[in-house]
Amino acid sequence: MKLSEFTTLLRDHSDAGLLFLVNGGHFAAHAHVTEVGRVEKLFLDCGGKPRRHAVCQLQLWEYTDTDHRLSPSKLLGILDKAAPLFGGEDLAVEVELEDGLLSQFPVTEGGLSDGQLVFQLEQKHAACLAMDICVPQEAGKESCCGGSTGCCA
Which of 43, 71, 120, 131 is the 20 to 30 Å CA partner of 138? Predict the structure, then answer.
């Protein structure tokens, strides 16, 4: 989900509760947003192509303060303060939280359900970004790491 859609949902449902669903359960309603940031990664894929990936990342943290509740309007205010970090880009939104391990979860959808603004978080997965040159498409063709395809450089 892009930042523009995320903030629109927050604005449209400012009086609702706020809930993040992850791995079949939900993250505690009393979670604190400890960081809002632009996380940017510059890298080479296995085909040698330079790439750039940037996201708006919200870090959530559960603590013993169970009376604390983050509302959509409060989260919107936090994002408004952080807006200069995003440089006007409509970045994808990810939530970083500890779910056994510190992990990042892309926000894939959101909507109102039973008075709660619910955001669905999905797990990230690794993938080859140079499939066209790394993975043989024809029988008998060598893979990138065993031939001269230019992959794994």
Answer: 43
- Residue 79 has a pLDDT of 97
DSSP 8-state class, residue 13: T
Residues of the chain with pLDDT under 50: none
**Residue 144 carries which DSSP code?**
G
- Supply the pTM of this predicted model: 0.85
* Gyration radius from the chain CA atoms: 19
Pair 16, 116: CB distance under 8 Å? yes
3-state secondary structure of 80: helix
Residue 19 to residues 27, 80, 112, 121: CA-CA distances in angstroms?
A: 7, 20, 10, 10
For position 28, what pLDDT does the model report?
76
Pairing mode, strands 102-113 and 50-61: unpaired
Tell which residue, 32, 54, 34, has the closest CA to residue 43: 54
Nearest to 56 by CA among 34, 79, 33: 79
